[in-house]
Amino acid sequence: MPPLSELMMFALALAAAGVVSGVLAGLFGVGGGAILVPVFFQVFGLLGVDDAVRMHLSVGTSTAIIVPTSVRSFLLHYRRGVVDTALLRNWILAIPLGAILATVIAAYVSSETLRLIFAMIALAVALRMIFNRATWRLGRDLPKNPITWLVGVVIGVLSGLMGVGGGVLNNTFMTLYNRPIHEAIATSSGVGVLISIPGLFGYIWAGSGEPGLPPLSTGFVNWIAVALIIPVSLLVAPLGVRLAHAMDRRQLEAGFGIFMILIALRFLYSLYG
């Protein structure tokens, strides 16, 4: 067990991550997992958590935290009237199905594979957002079913494997089909709700009985980290929402892209550095 001073530093680091994740939940329509997963990966490593379960624990714990932060962010955006509720109704089964499939996959893949998935998706989305042009469109409006429904399943799977709330992928999907970035961000908060709730139970199941997990963990969810971060995230989420509606489209896209590149590089370094 690390000294008390080190544990206090870890707790402060987690609390700081909670501030950033809460702001991001409102600002980019994500559950904050894009920053929480790498933070958890680092902190759990310093605490001596087995490498074989460290990434799984990071993703599962992040998913648990996304539940309240996404709900809070969704309600705030919904009150502003910019959420595409028709799209969310279309995905009410598709996205949870994808999230459950992600936890089944996670139960059988290695920590290195999870990190590589996270980094590759983050990098692809980042490049698209940074170099985005108005002419980069796949259509004037969202495609009809079954295409949109299948996209929902894919968003659920990939986001579930990353431990994020779906904003990373949904923002890209909606903007490619000519939807405003502010509407995409607002709708992504609802996507986070559809991913995180089934994902939470899935990661608890996937990690049940796994050796090497830290104290107060249920499957791949560590409740100490959850208890530290959720209150802070909920407190600062409204700040992110206000920032999102105050910034223009290009600022949001560029900021989101730069953020995701930094996260992708961090995980690639952990694999090949």
Automatic annotation (TrEMBL):
The chain crosses the membrane at residues 60-78, 90-109, 116-135, 147-169, 181-205, 220-240, 252-272. It comes from the Bacteria. Pfam families: TauE. It is a multi-pass membrane protein. Keywords: Cell membrane, Membrane, Transmembrane, Transmembrane helix. It is found in: Cell membrane; Membrane. Its main location: membrane. GO terms for cellular component: plasma membrane. Belongs to the 4-toluene sulfonate uptake permease (TSUP) (TC 2.A.102) family. This is Probable membrane transporter protein. It comes from Sinorhizobium fredii (strain NBRC 101917 / NGR234).
